[in-house]
Amino acid sequence: MAQERYLPTRGGSPLPGRPESANLADILERVLDKGIVIAGDIQINLLEVELLTIKLRLLIASVDRAREMGINWWESDASLQSIEPGDDEDGREQLERENRELRERLERLERRLDAGDEDRSEEPSAGAGHA
Amino acid sequence: MPDELARWAARRAPALLARAEEDAVAVLRDALVGAALDERRSASAQTAARTIGAGAPTASPRERDLEPKPKPPSGDVLWTYCVVAAREPLPDVLAGVDPSHPVERVAAGELAALVSRVPLSEFGEEPLRRNLNELDWLERVARRHEQVLEQTLGHGTIVPLRLCTIFADEDGVRRMLEEQRPALEAALELLTGRQEWGVKLLVERKALETVARDHTPEADARSDEIETSSAGGAYMLRRRLEREIREAADRLAVSVADDVHARLQDWASDAVLNPPQNRELSGHEGEMVLNGAYLVETPKVERLGELVSELQDRYRSLGATLELTGPWPPYNFVPRGVDVEGAPLA
């Protein structure tokens, strides 16, 4: 029974573009990043810039979560490093900007809290001396 | 008393804020990815006349004509799918990436490439660049490319070519076959009698945390502490305990992924680890903690199914699901590049 459930789920020959065929992520991770790379007459460099948008959409949500968990085994994979330097991708820029803004806001809040903390932390020692 | 509580809260505020920021960034990221995917859904509803590149492809200076004399991008070029041994039989009629053209074979010596005609108006450099960033277009083309490979896979060994390997004409394809012969023949030899299978490990966060809590010795002591603390203190302690359990669950997930991968790797001819997939594209449930590809000798494939079932049983208490897919065209096990990117062959 387990056999049936877990053995090939991709049999048959689904019509092109049918959503119930193999999952899109499975196909894209292979056809975009894998397969033998031969320079054809039409020069499209999939590895670097061309698919930045798609690759970000493909990867960012899951990869960041995995990194948080301490999973990073794919990071030796050169083809995935190409998304790191960033580019003119709107989503990434926006994410970075928002992230930066959040950090700045956090720092401001922390400074305010630290200041408050110091003020207050003097009080108990003064009180202790009193007693 | 309220003062004391306020001081106590102030001391812990940075940690809390860090946590809040983490949550906020996660929410933000989800929203961005969601927005990106929404955008592509609405984009697909519109016509192809998008303004990204502004203007007709013919007007672009980036267009590189394939003929010596400049001309508008009309006519066809050859999309290549894979390389096979020329003696391999082929499935009868396969529809190509452009369904109006069938898949054909271009042979040079012992090797042959499967190709089909595609219109330059859609697959020329400039339109291609634009189309590749439209997820719907990309999906359609990727699925057709994949389908040709899968159907060919049943007839013999193939060396998959990456998406968008396009030649001006048959001579270009033959020249490629000749120039890359050593690498292609080596790849064919390596892949003969072997299959690529994918294994993913998905875990359920809830089950993982339940097990992690049972293995966190401090958890009970913390719970007692929470019982006896003031409301504010109990809240902080509870958050800390939650974080500790979450971290323990993460470590547990990593160790399970390591074990599953090690078992499969020992047993396969070769293995490759890929990043976990985006849920919106894959539709998976739970957390993907392993996404591996394994090259398996054909006679051992049956045992692969059993091994996967065994591993799943072993980690059932973690809500673990192992997903086995295949056989895939062996994308993950061909040399990454036989020619330097950007170096034209012609």
Your description of this structure?
Chain A has two domains: 1-86, no CATH class; 89-131. Chain A has 131 residues and is mainly alpha-helical. Chain A has helices at residues 2-6, 24-33, 46-50, 52-69, 78-81, 90-130. Residues 44-72 and 339-346 of chain B have low confidence and may be disordered. Chain B has eleven helices and nine strands. Chain B is of the alpha+beta class and 346 residues long. Chain B folds into two domains: 74-192, no CATH class; 196-333, no CATH class. The interface between A and B is large, with 80 and 116 residues.
> What is the oligomer described by this structure?
heterodimer
Report the uncertain regions of chain A.
1-20, 78-89, 121-131
Q: What would the average pLDDT of chain B be, to the nearest integer?
A: 82
* Helix content estimate of chain A: 55-70%
* Secondary structure tally: strands of chain B: 9
Q: Write down the domain tally of chain A.
A: 2
- The geometry of chain B reads as elongated
Distance from first to last alpha carbon of chain B: 82 Å
Question: How are the SSEs placed, and which strands pair?
Answer:
The complex is a heterodimer of chains A (131) and B (346).
Chain A: H1 2-6, H2 24-33, H3 46-50, H4 52-69, H5 78-81, H6 90-130
Chain B: H1 2-45, E1 76-85, E2 104-108, E3 111-119, H2 120-123, H3 125-132, H4 135-153, E4 158-160, E5 166-167, H5 170-179, H6 181-191, E6 194-203, H7 205-214, H8 218-228, H9 231-267, E7 270-273, H10 279-282, E8 287-297, H11 301-314, E9 321-328
Antiparallel strand pairs in B: 1-3, 1-4, 1-5, 2-3, 6-8, 6-9, 7-8
Helix pairs in contact in B: 7-9, 8-9
Please outline what is shown here.
By secondary structure, chain A is mainly alpha-helical. Chain A has helices at residues 2-6, 24-33, 46-50, 52-69, 78-81, 90-130.
